[in-house]
Amino acid sequence: MHRRLAAVVDQPEVKARHLALAATTGDATTLSALDAAADAMVVQGAPAVAAELIELVLKLGGDTAQRRVRAGELHFRAGSLVTARTHLQSALDKAPSGVMRALALVWLGAVKAYDDDLLGAVEAFAEAAEEATDVPALRLLCLLRLALALAMTDRMGDAIDRAEVAVQLADQVGVPGLKSQALSIWVLGRFVWGLGVDRQALQTALQLEDPHGGATTYFQACGVEAMISAYCGDLERAEVQMGAVQRRMRDKRHRGRPHLGGQPRPRPSRSGRAATAPRRRLRARRCKRAEQIGGRLSLATAWTTQAAVAAYAGHESEARAAARAAIDTSHAIGARELVKEPTRILGFLEVSLGNYVAALDVLQPMLDAFDAIHEVEIEEGSHLPNAIEALTGLGRIDDAEPLIEALERNGAERDRPWMLAVGERGRAHLLAARGELEAAQRAVEQALVHHDRLPMPFERARTQLLLGQLQRRCRRKAAAEATLRAALAIFEDLGAPLWAGRARAELGRLDAPRGDGQQLTAAEQRIAALAATGLSNKQIAAEVFIAEKTVEMNLSRVYRKLGIRSRAALSTSLRSHDVQGNP
Fold it and tell me: What are the chain's domains?
């Protein structure tokens, strides 16, 4: 018993608390002892205890700008954002220009980023970098955080520029770990921005990396390597690499260290394994953790993950609510880059439901600003396949073709199997919309060749679903049934009920009754597609610039040709008959 009690009392955290209780005077020796105890608590991964000790130092008369900054840092690490902000603002009131003011600003920037003001964080980091002009190492740290904040506000070009300056400073400073961090964020930024992978720079960053540096994943070479593997479609390798990063981040040296931007992981939506029980549990843990931290940045990230998992699992209401919450929160804090992913998720959900008009309503702002060079890597362009399907489904072939060409061109130049696979699938959608069914089938078969290099079973199943539709329309019933059953099996295995339902519907249409056998004209197909989305005759007339009476006449002919009697059966019948346009 005595040995166990002695062991407990000997624990550093217990010693620190006893020291705090014993401190009744503010003499220099006591203050120094409390400072040292706080440092020990940080090493032990207990920032909240360290913050308590610094608070005591302040109360005992040791109130200096340096200790205020230290208190702000420790409260931030412990997740107490409001208290951290108070101390850092107080430090700014006390600190003269130079190093101490730069330190206060850089931590205040981190607080603002996690709390509710990413634009304010950019300003704080930029000011901190200016204050640290005469201290290269500190200026380098400020620029690294500024680069990440700029990227999150959708200023990727500026972010890359700051990262490049950081790389140059790192050479001047001569600290290997800092150079690794600078190279890591620079390599990642260039890649995401469509400028390719600088393999030599990444290899240098890996060689110089400090495994115990405690940096956020965006500044860890091994983390960047994992993210690039995921973005290039090598998901199996990415999962192994990111698993190693996460294990290292759980080490006691990294506990209690929140970071701007969080710790990214290869997204479950990339592989399609988003609706599994482990993923749902992970989603719940992230949301709970975000709520505990209280910062809106963390909540926006957690809600985005929740929306992705819910969308793939077919939980429509949950997906919409989480995505909208993430979008609204990201807008509120100025994180324009974080708005994109939940927007893409909403677009995917609408396409999953067959709501093409709604999908384009969601995605249109991103399509209007589309950059064919910088926004085709999977991280920036994952919405393109959904936009292409929606556009071709509504007969907007001319709008879809530039997106398809961007994927095909960049996929070939950069050897990206994801771009090549979804680009060929998009080409098949376009050819089918033109009625060129044999050519469409050849394109989708080529897409499946690219899928062989791409461990994304969900995307492969989508391509198989399209192939099965084309085979059915070309009267290849046996081949269509085999293809559709293969797609169905994957959707069911991945827990994607909306897409499994689409595959079952296609199987049911193999024996569906037919109308009078006449194909729809291009005008009839366009009007029928719009009507199938739920638009009224008046809305369709306004969309295609014709009289409402003309819409009625065209729909009457469509009903006759498809063998149906009402608009309610239109969506199903468009896919169950050999009509011109999208399958």
Answer: 514-583 (1.10.10.10)
